[in-house]
Amino acid sequence: MDLLNTLVDKGLRRELPTRAEALAVLATSDDDLLDVVAAAGKVRRHWFGRRVKLNYLVNLKSGLCPEDCSYCSQRLGSKAEILKYTWLKPDAASKAAAAGVAGGAKRVCLVASGRGPTDRDVDRVAGTIKAIKDQNEGVEVCACLGLLSDGQADRLREAGADAYNHNLNTSESTYGDITTTHTYADRVDTVQKAHAAGLSACSGLIAGMGESDEDLVDVVFSLRDLDPDSVPVNFLIPMEGTPLEAEWHLTPQRCLRILAMVRFVCPDVEVRIAGGREVHLRTMQPLALNLANSIFLGDYLTSEGQAGHADLEMIADAGFEVEGAGEVTLPRHRATAGGCGSHEDAGCGSHEGAGCGGHEGAAGGCGGHEGAGVCGSAPAPAAAATAAPAPQADEVRRDLVSVRRRGAGTDIAPNA
């Protein structure tokens, strides 16, 4: 296919596709899907080999957010029966982080619900960063605390943060339909503040909120303009009790096309499969590793993910390898660029064991359980005579969504 040959050539040269080319990727047929994955896979392997970076989320403060983001189970007015707790103490957060690091995570992502941190909150998070780094040698920390005020990004950097996450989530033209308590411009401003402070910027999107192909291309091109080191791709978890609980429009094929489009537009950037991979990609998750070079290990913020050991088995079975602490995530030209990653011990991408991470605390996760293998699936009964029909778009799969009841904020061991 001429389109795919063109996109591979551009990806290897770090040349931006046209909008028409990006839209054409999303419009390809299921018959051409494996060709699309193979083409985008060439670009992924050129810049990142067969390495998969593991990231681990710690929800420092859960629920009771004053913002009204429609996708979020922690939003103002949410009826989702999630865990609700105030700030974790530094030692509790460090203990949670250590579980992820022990499971192979290179990056710990510290997330807190809310519009944005107060200066006191920044001090609190600074203490947590110190505790984590003191007790977990070589770990990198990404903070995700909402909208930043002037000077706060610099203070987080001074405290030892390597990266800051704040997602754009959707296109500027549709942002007001999703959130009314802050603006798209507010989000762009926070990403720019992170950049200016020398933090590695991490910013991505949420697919599956009813957006058009044009919206998806718009937000990915906007991300490309912001030039983050990492682009997490979330697939909406329609959590009960949120305004988007009925939005079940994604198929595994659609998710793969979205990931391929992101890879072509951001060829040399860490593309992470974030919230919702287990729910929407399901048994196609291993194929998605040909497109993305990064995933979250274990659970998400308010919902459960695939068992941590199943993540590791999936990576190995698909012929990939977990990125080690002695490997640099980003390609050399990005790792040696100005800002974060420009010098030894600078943070994301700058040294052995570098990278970028985090995702904004919105997209939830999936309803797997310990030892479940593919998320949400239990071993099939021996007497089962016929397989269940393949799930279709718009089919509600509540069986794949489970509220997190373990890990941070509980007395139960985390999933890592």
Question: What does this 3D model show about the protein?
Answer:
It is a single chain. With 416 residues, this protein is α/β, with parallel strands linked by helices. The protein has 14 helices and ten strands. Strands 1, 2, 3, 4, 5, 6, 7, 8, 9 and 10 form a ten-stranded parallel sheet that branches. Helix 5 links the parallel strand 2 and strand 3.
For this entry, give a set of tags:
14 helices; ten-stranded parallel β-sheet; about 35% helix; about 425 residues; alpha/beta; 10 strands; globular
Short description:
With 416 residues, the protein is α/β, with parallel strands linked by helices. The protein contains 14 helices and ten strands.
Structural class: alpha/beta
SSE pattern: HHHEHEHEHEHHEEHEHEHHEHEH
What would you report as the Rg, rounded to the nearest angstrom?
19 Å
Question: What does the overall shape look like?
Answer: globular
Mean pLDDT: 86
- Share in β-strands: 5-15%
Number of strands: 10
Helix fraction bin: 25-40%
Biggest β-sheet description? 10 strands, parallel
Number of helices: 14
> How far apart are the termini?
41 Å
Q: Low-confidence spans: pLDDT under 50, at least 5 residues?
A: 338-388
